[in-house]
């Protein structure tokens, strides 16, 4: 299989490239500048509308992961614009280019997020659930709609609605480790908001599974089958690190410090099920949060914890 991957230097992209190569795929990176990875590369600049369409010919599939990082900090108007444009505009440009090819790829897997659903309390959400409200929900809706040219040209399009992807090598979990190890971890707000999460190994495994199953298309929730509340997550991480989790930040304080980002990333509750993944036969390696944390962090007793999954 020949696969073109954008966002290949990102947190998920780096692991995905290694995984695909390990499973025999020939991977080409869709990059904004030449790198030194030794892999095949195709250069593009979606902001300027620049891409060599001839080099897009001949791929079996494209995995599009590009997007501005969602930092846990106050979002300025410029940051909001970068979050939206880096996702929506790049997807529209790429899909128009793919749709114009003489031999377009059979499949396009395009990143999205469970932010599509907005903050919904303890409502159980599947791929059939309606979109939510708020900035990230609106971005996700526009992001997925931007793939319309690919859908209309009969490319199989899957929207990868990622939950919180966990690994000590990057993302949210890496950022949490230092304060938690210092005993400064604790819940955000009332701690009752649900977290749709997935281990990085499973996120990458799920993407490969979707690539290999032609029947999987449309929105797909890339999450573990057991969402947890913020309080459950915090307590599980504290037990794993053997540290107290007594420092709580009230919702008002979090909003004061981080503004809109607080609501979108820390206080929103999204209880998401991986209905399509499970129905298609994907089996998660790490379906439960505490054994997953034990495994990822190499804690003594990880083998015993994993056996209880």
Summarize the structure.
This protein has 309 residues and is α/β, with parallel strands linked by helices. It is 40% helix and 18% strand.
Summarize the topology.
Layout: E1 2-6, H1 11-22, E2 26-31, E3 40-45, E4 50-51, E5 61-64, H2 77-99, E6 107-113, E7 124-125, H3 135-145, H4 148-152, E8 156-162, E9 164-166, H5 171-181, E10 194-195, E11 197-199, H6 200-212, E12 218-222, E13 228-229, H7 230-241, H8 251-258, H9 260-267, E14 271-272, H10 275-279, H11 289-297, H12 302-307
Parallel strand pairs: 1-2, 1-5, 2-3, 5-6, 6-8, 7-14, 8-12, 9-11
Antiparallel strand pairs: 3-4, 10-13
Helix pairs in contact: 1-6, 2-3, 7-11, 8-9
Descriptive account of the structure:
It is a single chain. By secondary structure, the protein is an alpha/beta fold. Helices cover 40% and strands 18% of the residues. The chain contains 12 helices and 14 strands. The protein has helices spanning 11-22, 77-99, 135-145, 148-152, 171-181, 200-212, 230-241, 251-258, 260-267, 275-279, 289-297, 302-307; strands at 2-6, 26-31, 40-45, 50-51, 61-64, 107-113, 124-125, 156-162, 164-166, 194-195, 197-199, 218-222, 228-229, 271-272. The strands form 4 sheets. Strands 4-3-2-1-5-6-8-12 form an 8-stranded mixed sheet, with helices on both faces. The chain has a two-stranded parallel sheet with strand order 7-14. Helix 2 (77-99) packs parallel to helix 3 and helix 7 (230-241) packs parallel to helix 11. The radius of gyration is 19 Å and the shape is globular. Mean pLDDT is 93; it is low at 301-309.
